Amino acid sequence: MLTELKVNEFVNLIASDTPAPGGGSVAAVTAAQGIALTKMVTALTIGKKKYAEHDGLMQEIASEASTLTAKLVDFVNKDTEAYNGVSAVFSMPKATDEEKTARSAAMQNALKAAAIVPFEIMQTCFDALKITEQAIGKSNVNAASDLGVSALNLGAGVKGAWLNVKINLSGIKDEAFVNEYTQKGVKVYDEACAISERVYQAILAIV
Length: 207
Known about the structure:
mainly alpha; elongated; 78% helix
């Protein structure tokens, strides 16, 4: 399991000549780091008299952040598994027409799975950005910069995941599927990137 590797082991694996883990898994790790920072900020705020009026909100954000962090960590493995599903198709036989048809169908299914996982990473980043924005001005000001770094990591996660959605959509012949995930992806991308930039600019004005 990728998520059980030490940091240096994971980084060295990425740097090797194996194509996975690749950009999708890295996007998930980046995003997980982001929302983990948001969780940290809530931990540094909860119980502080100065922020007592926001204690309930911080508790809610902390709970949601824990759930989202776990999801993004899980996507580190899922994205590589999806890529491996695509790679496995290349070893399928293609000597007969029947084998070629089966191979083609398997590839289409594998590409769809490989597009859906990074889209779900994008959606999770979007959810994480929404709760991160709620903490601005209501959390420990000494950790304000960490919210900014959270927003940057989550924004990078969205952008990286979107590239992985697009490259897999490019090989899918199902036009309805491609149109659906293109439209949904653009919407999540635009909204998430807007929040990421908004949070970053708000933090710049604070620190």
